[in-house]
Amino acid sequence: MDENLWAVYDAMGASFVDHAADGAYNAHYDRPAVLAAIGAVEGLDVLDAACGPGFYLQKLVDAGARVRGFDASEEMVRLAKERVGGEVDIRRADLDSTLPYDDESFDLIVCALAIHYSSDRSATFGEFFRLLRPGGRCVVSTGHPASDFARKAGSYFDVVMESDTWNISDTESYEVRFWREPLSSLTAAATDSGFVIRSLIEPRPTESMLERWPEDHAELSRAPAFLVLDLLRLA
């Protein structure tokens, strides 16, 4: 993984936590959609891949899962450990490396809004496949390729590095870089690694977003900004 793609999270630090904890797109769009796709996790061994400051880790622990996690950002690892305490093994690792876990260690892998930081999505999905037990699932959320194309233009079929400016407070803004690719490329990276696509979800905005961010709700009711892949390892 290009260090510049995740180092920005070290710089954002606690400001990102404040932004994402109750923000429209994180707390009221991505998390409800991903958690609904995950379903019941009690008693499962779960890996939170690129766990950020630990919002999903906490949800999974509270739901009764046995959870481990990793992130490429040292600051996000620190914040995640602070959030969940010593009950979860959280390591520093990145999506472009061989992950520090044994084969077939998990029943479920969650990777929320992070696969687009991997420079080789096929290799990353291959690692996820290796880590899952037969019958295990991988739930991945990312930017919707059509939405990214509409914002960035160029050719929809290009695989290119893009950048966005995130204004996470009245005084802080950061340039965040990520990979944009067509849906066919993203899904092929998953299926070529051995996964079967159980479902592809284009989330609708929540009612809580309508109450607090009516313009965002209206826009997301017309076209999705994210998608969720629910992937299965059959054998």
Plain-language structure description:
There is one protein chain. With 235 residues, this protein is an alpha/beta fold. The protein has ten helices and nine strands. The strands form two sheets. It has a seven-stranded mixed β-sheet, with helices on both faces. A two-stranded antiparallel ribbon has the order 6-7. The longest helix has 15 residues.
Please tag this protein with its features.
235 residues; 40% helix; two-stranded antiparallel ribbon; alpha/beta
Lateral arrangement of strands in the main beta sheet:
3-2-1-4-5-9-8
Q: What is the alpha-carbon Rg in Å?
A: 17 Å
Distance from N terminus to C terminus (CA atoms, Å) equals: 28 Å
Q: For this entry, what is the oligomeric state of its chains?
A: single chain
Tally of extended strands?
9
Biggest beta sheet summary: 7 strands, mixed
Low-confidence stretches: none
What is the N-to-C succession of helices and strands? Answer: HHHEHEHEEHEHEEHEHHE
Q: Number of helical segments?
A: 10
Q: Assign an overall shape.
A: globular
Give the structural class. alpha/beta
The helix content, as a percent range, equals 40-55%
Short description:
The chain is of the alpha/beta class. The protein is built from ten helices and nine strands. The protein has helices spanning 3-12, 14-21, 24-38, 55-62, 74-84, 121-131, 145-152, 183-191, 207-212, 214-222; strands at 45-49, 66-71, 89-92, 106-112, 132-143, 160-167, 173-180, 196-201, 226-232.
